[in-house]
Amino acid sequence: MHNALMILAFWSIAFVTLCSALALLNIFYGVIGNDLFLHGAGKEAGIAAAASLVEGGGVWLIVHYVPSAARALVVPLIVVVLIYKVGHFEDWNTGDALFLLLFQVVIGFFAASLLGGRFESAFFILVMFGIMLGVISFFTKNL
């Protein structure tokens, strides 16, 4: 596959998972009674596009040039957290950005498991993430 198409594919996957994570995080924060302060749709799409470009490009660089360095995939994720922290500097704390990253990673693993035909793994990821969110919501509602 041509390099530009690979970058575009990684960028689009990162953008879709990031937008899905934002939407699900906003719903989850509404359920537990917290406010996730988001800008308008255009500004959020711009932040998501920039963050996903950095993330997708970083993943492409690592996969293309250093395929044995899977631990280096953490670097693009940290950059995404920093972009969202700067983009929502006054509104979000670092925990919100890390929670967004957690949602994105779980969505990515869930989608990869489904597309790879690993339905048991996808179900396990979904159940464990649901249990984790239930425990978090139980503790935050009781505080």
A few lines on this structure:
With 143 residues, this protein is mostly helical.
General description of the model:
The protein has about 140 residues and is an all-alpha fold. It has one domain (about 5-140). Helix content is about 80%, strand content about 0%. Helix 1 (about 5-30) crosses helix 2 and helix 4 runs antiparallel to helix 5.
* Order of helix and strand elements from N to C terminus: HHHHH
Q: What is the number of domains?
A: 1
Largest sheet: none
Approximate helicity band: over 70%
Give the averaged pLDDT, no decimals: 88
Amino-to-carboxy terminus distance: 52 Å
Number of helices: 5
Topology overview:
Elements (H helix, E strand, L loop, with lengths): L2 H30 L8 H25 L8 H14 L6 H22 L3 H24 L1
List keywords for this structure.
143 residues; mainly alpha; 80% helix; globular
